[in-house]
């Protein structure tokens, strides 16, 4: 009887030790698996961050290249034209003009003043410091005011909801998207009216640009570089890019960007 009790105690001790060993083994295995998963997770996060940073850097380089192209085009088409006209007036400033040299000097001063003002506006428009210091909305309002000055276009801005500020990098990319869209509309669409809508919700920003221009067939295989640039930059912001257009019916561009990273 005593031996049976002793055997039972030994059995329970051995059984308990085996169970504890199994539990420890399972616990160690679970911790090992969890640690590996955690390490893989953080490694994936770092890889994604690196990819995103590389994409952002590449986008910044593309933005800088495009900025230089815009500056070159603006200097050639607008400011260069005005300075050439001023030079023409200077070349004819010999007293032979029926209006007299005084009128010519006044006109030259006016033209050079306009060229200086255009250079100042161009510098502000192309500088990323404007977005960093004043924010996307102020930079956009300034851009619209500059484009409305010649009274060739009627550009209207509507803001729906409570504006939410993004990071400086994101706001710069968003601003360049709008600049690209406006440049394409002005250059190709033959539009007279452009309506920009910014719709802020709790989780996303929806940007809409609609014009009354000539439109185009969106089912073409080869899309213009401007549209590809806008889509690429929208992808950098984890956004959705959509364009609706038809010949003779204008174009509407919609961009939906999450305000917060998930």
Structural notes for this entry:
This protein is an alpha+beta fold. It has a domain at 135-262: Histidine kinase-like ATPase, C-terminal domain (Heat Shock Protein 90, 2-Layer Sandwich), CATH 3.30.565. Helix content is 65%, strand content 14%. Strands 1-2-3-5-4 form a five-stranded mixed sheet, with helices on one face. Helix 1 (2-91) packs antiparallel against helix 2 and helix 5 packs antiparallel against helix 6. The protein is elongated, with a radius of gyration of 32 Å.
Short recap of the structure:
By secondary structure, this protein is α+β, with helices and mostly antiparallel strands.
Please give the number of β-strands. 5
Rg, nearest Å:
32 Å
Instruction: Write out the CATH superfamily name of the domain at 135-262.
Output: Histidine kinase-like ATPase, C-terminal domain
CATH class (first level) name of the domain at 135-262 = Alpha Beta
Largest sheet: 5 strands, mixed
């Amino acid at each position: 009887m005593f031996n049976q009790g002793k055997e039972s105690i030994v059995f329970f001790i051995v059984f308990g030790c085996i169970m504890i060993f199994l539990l420890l083994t399972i616990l160690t295995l679970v911790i090992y698996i969890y640690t590996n998963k955690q390490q893989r997770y953080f490694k994936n996060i770092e890889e994604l961050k690196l990819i995103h940073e590389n994409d952002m850097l590449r986008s910044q380089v593309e933005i800088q290249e495009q900025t230089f192209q815009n500056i070159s085009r603006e200097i050639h088409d607008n400011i260069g034209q005005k300075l050439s006209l001023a030079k023409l007036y200077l070349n004819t400033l010999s007293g032979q003009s029926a209006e007299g040299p005084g009128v010519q000097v006044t006109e030259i001063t006016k033209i050079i003043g306009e060229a200086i003002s255009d250079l100042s506006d161009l510098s502000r428009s192309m500088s990323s410091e404007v977005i960093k210091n004043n924010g996307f909305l102020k930079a956009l309002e300034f851009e619209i005011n500059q484009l409305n000055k010649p009274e060739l276009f009627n550009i209207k801005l509507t803001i729906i909801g409570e504006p939410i500020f993004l990071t400086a990098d994101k706001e710069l990319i968003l601003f360049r998207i709008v600049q690209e869209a406006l440049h394409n509309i002005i250059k190709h669409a033959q539009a007279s009216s452009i309506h920009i809508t910014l719709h802020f919700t709790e989780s996303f920003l929806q940007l809409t640009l609609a014009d009354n221009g000539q439109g185009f067939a969106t089912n073409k295989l080869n899309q213009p570089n401007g549209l590809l640039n806008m889509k690429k930059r929208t992808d950098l912001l984890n956004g959705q890019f959509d364009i609706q257009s038809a010949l003779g019916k204008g174009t509407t561009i919609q961009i939906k960007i999450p305000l917060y990273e998930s």
